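User: Just a sanity check before I run the rest of the batch. Below are the structure tokens for the first item. I only need the designed sequence back.
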């Protein structure tokens, strides 16, 4: 039996749909001791992690391996003075050391700060100074260590730097120290309300914000894994994400282990759809999750059968119906969308046992009371666009919602304006209770008195075979207030031309209402994106206003 049942109460209706879900956990809950170690005690040989890289190397870890390695790593960190509350930056890309390092830091009560390897030295310096980071652990790539060492020169708090696998100048070798450390660790007292993990959100404007979650956060991902991703006890789940992103917490450790599934990790630098499919087939992956961009490449750049795959999910941005259709035609598996944020667990989703609608974000998770609020603060009716907000229960504690923005209480208070959590994202709800994404509040286009969600037009553009990626924005217009503009990245095999530009524009406008018509369109070699891969519409707007 999966261990997750020890930490929740579930209620199902007569059709088997999950209608209520409540977490229950002790005040001293700690994922390292109470989940990873407990599974190791009851089933030491159970697979926890399968790792391979593009060069054909492979490592397989059981839960007993994770228990021993995390204890060893915790003893190494303790010996160097890392203690409860200390902040540790981890830049391990897709390396397997992330998993035992994360569990080790959880056991110590230190705050894990995962970051992407794509950061510059200035980005690293900002994070270290902002959070008072005491130590850093990074992959052995020379450019990564050099960036951290450059930032360290102006960051007195950053006293320790480890690399894994091999030694680097001015760095300690974590792998060597772990190998010789004892594998027994006496439990260190922690509290479920203590800070566990901090993610710096890239955002579309301003400096990144430090989003802090407490030790109860992993439990909120039971629904993410069990009921949205539909992981299988004894199965193998594969989420495409680098460890620097919150997507790893969503899909590569917490909920999956709680629900009894091992996680698949493919360590690559350059994305190759065919290589990805070969990994899925070689290791018999049962459940898969990736952002829409990955599915776009899969369906536009060739495909192959994946007989072991049972379920597939997507999140991160709106999924184009054309991509859904092509994936379903070729696999027989409907892509199930979900929605949440770095600040939360799964808020909306097409969950197991429930009816689903292709292209929708699904219905509200039983974890949350979700509402849509219009600009005037009143509830949106069916079909009306509103901001997605979460209304807290009478107890006040909202599972999975972050406990604060680091050193920015005013911004946190703004997120909870009016006593509800404001996501900043807009959607509309149909008469069956399904939510449909519109866009960020500042992305909604107001043209000729109408409000237009950019995803409505982007979905139609993506139906044209020449369109690989696209983004729709509003640009200033004397007559309309805003006119609708599309920026298009062409699929392989298509060449930019005035004729193709006109063809794509007419193709789209023939399928949408006149007030949504594209007035301007241009080709681009690539779309500007945040380091988490989300399209920076603000940058496109700024460029259009020059």
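Assistant: Here's the designed sequence for the first item:
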């Amino acid at each position: 039996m999966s261990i997750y049942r020890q930490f929740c109460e579930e209620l199902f209706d007569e059709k088997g749909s999950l209608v209520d879900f409540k977490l229950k956990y002790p005040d001293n809950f700690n994922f390292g001791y109470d989940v990873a170690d407990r599974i190791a005690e009851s089933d030491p040989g159970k697979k926890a992690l399968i790792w391979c890289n593009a060069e054909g190397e492979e490592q397989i870890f059981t839960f007993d391996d994770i228990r021993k390695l995390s204890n060893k790593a915790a003893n190494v960190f303790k010996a160097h003075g890392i203690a409860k509350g200390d902040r540790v930056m981890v830049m391990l890309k897709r390396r397997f050391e992330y998993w035992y390092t994360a569990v080790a830091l959880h056991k110590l009560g230190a705050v894990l700060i995962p970051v992407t390897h794509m950061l510059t030295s200035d980005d690293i310096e900002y994070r270290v100074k902002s959070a008072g980071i005491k130590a850093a652990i990074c992959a052995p790539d020379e450019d990564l260590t050099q960036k951290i060492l450059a930032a360290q020169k102006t960051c007195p708090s950053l006293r320790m730097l480890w690399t894994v696998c091999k030694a680097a100048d001015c760095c300690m070798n974590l792998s060597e120290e772990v190998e010789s450390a004892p594998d027994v660790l006496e439990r260190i007292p922690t509290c479920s309300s203590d800070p566990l993990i901090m993610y710096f959100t890239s955002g579309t404007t301003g400096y990144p914000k430090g989003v802090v979650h407490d030790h109860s956060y992993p439990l909120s991902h039971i629904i993410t894994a069990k009921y949205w991703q539909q992981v299988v006890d004894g199965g193998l789940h594969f989420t495409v994400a680098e460890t620097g992103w919150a997507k790893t917490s969503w899909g590569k450790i917490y909920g999956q282990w709680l629900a009894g599934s091992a996680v698949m990790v493919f360590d690559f630098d350059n994305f190759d759809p065919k290589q990805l499919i070969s990994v899925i087939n070689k290791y018999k992956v049962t459940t898969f999750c990736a952002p829409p961009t990955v599915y776009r490449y899969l369906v536009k750049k060739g495909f192959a059968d994946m007989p072991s795959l049972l379920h597939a999910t997507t999140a991160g941005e709106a999924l184009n119906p054309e991509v859904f259709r092509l994936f379903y035609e070729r696999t027989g598996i409907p892509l199930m969308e979900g929605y949440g944020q770095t600040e939360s667990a799964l808020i909306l989703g097409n969950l197991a046992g429930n009816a689903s609608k292709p292209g929708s974000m699904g219905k509200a998770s039983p974890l949350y009371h979700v509402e849509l609020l219009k600009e005037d603060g009143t509830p949106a009716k069916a079909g009306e666009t509103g901001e997605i907000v979460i209304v807290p229960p009478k107890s006040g504690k909202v599972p999975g919602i972050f406990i604060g923005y680091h050193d920015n209480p005013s911004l946190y208070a703004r997120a909870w304006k009016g006593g509800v959590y404001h996501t900043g994202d807009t959607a509309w709800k149909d008469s069956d209770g399904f939510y449909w994404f519109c866009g960020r509040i500042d992305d909604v286009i107001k043209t000729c008195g109408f409000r237009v969600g950019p995803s409505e037009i982007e979905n139609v553009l993506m139906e044209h075979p020449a369109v690989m990626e696209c983004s729709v924005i509003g640009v200033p217009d004397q007559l309309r207030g805003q006119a609708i503009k599309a920026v298009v990245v062409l699929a392989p095999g298509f060449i930019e031309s005035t004729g193709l530009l006109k063809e794509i524009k007419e193709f789209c406008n023939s399928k949408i209402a006149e007030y949504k018509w594209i007035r301007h369109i241009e080709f681009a070699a690539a779309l500007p994106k945040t380091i988490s891969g989300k399209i920076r519409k603000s940058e496109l707007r700024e460029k259009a206003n020059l």
